[in-house]
Amino acid sequence: MTLIDLTHPLGVGAPAPAGAPAVELRRLTTHEEHILQDSWLGTPVHAGTHLDAPLHAQAGGEDIAGLDLGRLVGPAVAWRVDCDEPREIGVDELAAAEPQPRPGDRVVIATGWDRHYGDRERYAVHPHLAPDAAAWLLDAGVSLLGVDTPTPELAAPRRGPEFDYPIHRALLAAGVLIVENLAGVDRVAGRRFTLHVLPIPIEHADGAPARVVAELRP
Is the pTM of the predicted complex or chain greater than 0.90? Predict the structure, then answer.
């Protein structure tokens, strides 16, 4: 068994939604003064590698703490959809990707945009799924979507005033979870594996930082 970490470390400077406070990490106690070191972490729940719960897009939807573990661990496929520049990823590209998902599979997409993770301005203007991709994923029976970008939606700097989050609304309303800001998905592209998505179970929260791991077996 091989475990591949698909998680960006959460720290100061981690991407967060536009207008949200930045991630903050500071020391409460130190080894020199208190023997044990203790730290304080302040973060938006949608910063860094994280999972979106249905509550994120649906009033009365499930919160992150209420998600059954059976939905967070299971069979997955990873696709490489190379993007040298920010662009729309159409349904035709998803339909041509291999291996195709079986009903209930989790799908993670490697665009390669995680290479810009340390450059906040460049990373913020990223590839995105076409709005009708959500319906295609639902028809395919996908149970979770993961991306190596801040969101599967049109990049925030390119949205107009009428933007209504079509991917989030369609998928989360159907119970399809969304993982954002994945790292190194290209290492499992073109493969089947078991995906482990383990968010912090924060009560009444619409998302949470998560450790995301691909488990490969011979």
Answer: yes
